[in-house]
Specification:
By secondary structure, the protein is an alpha/beta fold. The chain is built from 15 helices and 15 strands. The protein folds into three domains: 154 residues, CAP (Pathogenesis-related Protein p14a, 3-Layer(aba) Sandwich); 120 residues, Glutaredoxin, CATH 3.40.30; 130 residues, Glutaredoxin, CATH 3.40.30.10. The N terminus is likely disordered.
Length: 486
């Protein structure tokens, strides 16, 4: 009898889950200023983003229910795995670091200094030396770090002497770290009560054990580094390769470029942009710049990799920071100045903050992040596996010249099996107008998602992991796909 009752309760739970376990609700998030690109009137009607398949919510609800039955009351997060320690820097730079939070705080207060807290993982004993070595790549950042009071401690360090008090990193002041290893900067340089002791910024330790020095420099109030422009293409490539950095190319009109001058004066002069560029090799070239190919000189912009520049002034970014074959040495961003407009500070920050990815992936992510409503899906963790799924489905749509969630029922289960525990897969699709260039097509696809309530719910809602990509069909139409785990 009791065994029968269990199935009755399970059936009731399944029925109720179909009503209550739909997509996660949207949540508001702080966002930068809206895009400064000129607004365009809505074009005439065309096929918009495709609709959801019937029965999908039931399958998702069932999976959530069985995950809950399996995990019970335990928190569900990323699957546990072996964490490999990072190696000690080849040329370590040693600075004095406190190991006690109270002592470091009292010293920073007495000397009226910034306090830099480094929360490290137990398997990362060289984190402090690695941070100092990385900061030394930008002299202005290293000087600011050297002048601050520094403390390095385990991410499990308690808030007080008693472990029952909870972890220090979980204090609301360090909410930007989300409980992860990283760096926090606290201000004790002022006697003003309303500002003394405020957290100026947090920087999470990246998966490769590095830190975003641009964000760290902002928090440390480091001196603004100048942009060190190079003028020779091969010298810039050599430098970027040696430093394992991105290479940004500003293509200018020969003899004078009013748009480029305006871009440098209005956008590249911004402090936050400068700090982001400090870890990037920067190169200026005229539109007609030539490079040797065999026994002749060819125009660089005639190379197919720069086709989306359309021989116009603007920006291109080449990836020499990531060793993956599909990224290293590839053109991963092209941002021509469209319609006589230069990129604003917020747009430039979005460009420089794009995750590692291919040209089409990064362009679509940029279009999502710079939409005026600032949809939150692209603020999660860019997942290469989901990006590969998005690329594959975009390529399939481009091959058959038809937009849609083709074979979603089977792909849904395959994708779910690769997601972090507790996450479910969602997908959006859209298409551009025929003949559009890459960047306008990406913006158009995001506009189409905005026209569909169901798709916009997925695009605008926060997610744990995501992947975007788009491919062009023989008909000149771009087919876009976004896949999310939430």
């Amino acid at each position: 009898m009791f065994r029968s009752m269990r199935f009755v309760f399970l059936g009731l739970a399944v029925w109720s889950s179909c009503w209550f376990l739909g997509p996660l609700p949207q949540s508001a998030a702080a966002s930068p200023e809206p895009s400064a690109m000129a607004a365009k009137p809505d074009p005439p009607e065309k096929p918009s983003a495709s609709s959801w398949r019937p029965g999908m919510y039931l399958a998702q609800s069932l999976r959530r229910l069985f995950q809950w039955l399996h995990h019970g009351h335990r928190s569900v997060g990323l699957p546990a795995g072996e964490v490999k320690p990072f190696a000690r820097p080849a040329r370590p730079i040693s600075l004095d670091w406190h190991t006690d939070y109270g002592q470091a705080t009292r010293e920073a207060q007495r000397r009226q200094r910034l306090l830099v807290l480094l929360f490290r993982a137990p398997v990362d004993p060289w984190a402090a030396e690695r941070l100092a070595s990385q900061a030394a790549e930008i002299p202005e950042v290293f000087d600011a770090l050297r002048q601050a009071t520094r403390a390095a401690m385990l991410v499990s360090a308690p808030l007080e002497k008693s472990p029952e008090a909870g972890r220090l990193v979980d204090h609301p002041a360090f909410a930007g770290l989300f409980g992860n290893p990283g760096v926090a900067v606290i201000d004790y340089t002022t006697q003003e009560p309303s500002h003394r002791g405020q957290v100026l910024g947090t920087v999470i330790t990246a998966a490769d054990g590095s830190w975003d020095l641009g964000r760290l420099a902002e928090a440390l109030r480091a001196k603004v580094p100048p942009i060190r422009w190079q003028s020779n293409y091969f010298d810039a490539v050599r430098t970027a390769t040696q430093r394992r950095q991105m290479l940004l190319v500003l293509f200018r009109t020969p003899g004078g470029c009013a748009l480029c001058d305006r871009f440098e004066k209005e956008t590249l002069a911004d402090v936050q942009v400068r700090f982001r560029l400090a870890q990037t090799v920067c190169l200026k070239l005229p539109l007609d710049a030539k490079v040797p190919e065999g026994d002749r000189l060819v125009a660089l912009l005639d190379h197919p990799a720069f086709a989306e520049m359309h021989h116009t002034p603007g920006l291109a970014i080449l990836d020499y920071a990531h060793p993956e074959p599909h990224l290293f040495g590839q053109v991963v961003s092209v941002f021509p100045f469209l319609d006589g407009q230069v990129y604003s500070v917020d747009q430039m920050k979005a460009i420089l903050d794009l995750p590692p990815g291919t040209l089409t992936q990064r362009t679509l992510i940029y279009a999502v992040r710079t939409h005026p409503e600032r949809p939150a899906s692209a603020n999660g963790r860019f997942d290469p596996l989901l990006a590969a799924e998005a690329e594959s489905h975009s390529q399939y749509q481009a091959q058959i010249l038809r937009q849609g969630h083709h074979f979603w029922e089977s792909r849904f289960h395959r994708i779910n099996s690769r997601l972090p525990a507790g996450c479910l897969a969602f997908e959006v699709c859209a298409e551009s107008w025929p003949g559009q260039a890459l960047l306008p097509a990406a913006i158009e696809c995001v506009r189409c998602w905005r026209l569909s309530a169901g798709h916009w719910r997925s695009v605008s809602s926060p997610c744990t992991v995501y992947g975007y990509d788009m491919k062009r069909g023989a008909n000149g139409v771009w087919y876009a796909t976004g896949i999310f785990g939430r």
